[in-house]
Design goal:
Layout: H1 3-14, H2 16-25, E1 35-41, E2 46-52, H3 61-68, H4 71-92, H5 105-113, H6 128-138, H7 140-147, E3 152-153, E4 159-160, H8 174-193, H9 198-209, H10 212-215, E5 231-236, H11 244-255, E6 260-265, E7 270-274, E8 294-296
Parallel strand pairs: 1-5, 5-6
Antiparallel strand pairs: 1-2, 3-4, 6-7, 7-8
Helix pairs in contact: 1-4, 2-4, 4-5, 4-7, 4-8, 5-6, 6-9, 8-9
């Protein structure tokens, strides 16, 4: 059993409350976001689209969070998730607390600044792990200020903490607070699944890029993820090579950079894929040996 697998359940139990707060207050997908579905008939270049729109009566979730003033509490919960992750990830990487029993925060901060810790698949990614650890380190004093009631809130919702000498820190804007929280949620998603696909990795890096003023690290070049990803059925004739560049250009122009596709063949076979993972050249799709970017669905 890998180190990450051996401690994953303990980590999830240790962070159950904090993760619940994050999911309820700052979900990765807004509950009132619209969704798009449709069918694209490749042979005759014909598209059928359906749009579902959701309406909210009363305050939206964002408005409720703003009204209650709980965004700083959610930030503290996100920081604690990373803090508890390190308590498992550091021993998995061969590190132990000085007293042999309990980790001090300053010890975890020191290790995080050095990039220590084993938390698959995060810690093997040379873009993701340093940025996540840098955010944890950079927000230490903000978190301490919140816990010890030494932080103040600015008129726009920015958090102004103080350092160890009582000197005000650079204000942490609401958008930066939320990006850190969502980065932590996406990191936990990667931990629980044991893998990061291209889309999940990009989304995680995008949130970490958005707090570059906090971490001091250069952008990883991620693009903005979509709130709700369109799901399009792609009716294909597999008797010939599929013109993936043409399909990608058409669907991306209509629906954005991220599209879920369900490949439906004349025989009723159904396969799932992320459009952005499709090849950039014409290629035949072999149902007997589908490429790794394609998942066969059980229903026909």
């Amino acid at each position: 059993m890998s180190p990450s697998a051996s401690y994953l359940q303990d980590f999830l139990e240790d962070t159950a409350f904090e993760r619940y707060v994050l999911e309820r207050a700052l979900p990765l997908v807004a509950p009132d976001a619209s969704s798009t579905s449709g069918t694209y008939h490749v042979a005759d270049d014909r598209m059928e689209i359906a749009l579902a729109v959701h309406d909210t009566i009363g305050m939206t979730l964002d408005q409720a969070v703003e009204r209650l003033g709980i965004r700083p509490l959610v930030l503290g919960a996100a920081w604690k998730v990373v803090d508890l992750l390190l308590e498992h990830a550091l021993p998995a990487d061969g590190h132990q607390p000085r007293d042999g029993r309990r980790w001090r925060i300053d010890e975890k901060i020191r290790h995080a600044a050095l990039g220590h810790g084993r938390a698959m698949p995060l810690s093997t990614d040379t873009d993701v792990w340093p940025r996540l650890m840098s955010a944890y380190v950079a927000l230490e004093q903000v978190r301490h200020s919140l816990v010890h009631r030494r932080a103040t809130l600015g008129p726009a919702g920015e958090i102004v903490g103080v350092d160890r000498n009582g000197v005000p820190l650079v204000p942490l804007r609401p958008a930066e607070q939320e990006d850190f929280c969502r980065a932590v949620q996406r990191a936990v998603n990667a931990l629980t699944s044991g893998a990061m696909n291209a889309r999940g990795r990009n989304a995680l890096l995008w949130h970490l890029d958005r707090i570059g003023n906090v971490t001091g690290l250069a952008s990883a070049g991620a693009y903005e993820p979509q709130d709700r990803v369109p799901r399009i059925e792609l009716r294909l004739d597999l008797a010939q090579d599929v013109d993936w560049p043409k399909i990608k250009a058409k669907l991306s122009k209509s629906f954005g950079s991220e599209v879920d596709i369900v490949l439906v063949t004349a025989t009723g076979d159904r396969l799932f894929a992320h459009l952005e993972d499709a090849p950039d050249e014409e290629a035949r799709l072999d149902l007997g040996d589908p490429p790794p970017w394609v998942i066969r669905l059980t229903d026909k």
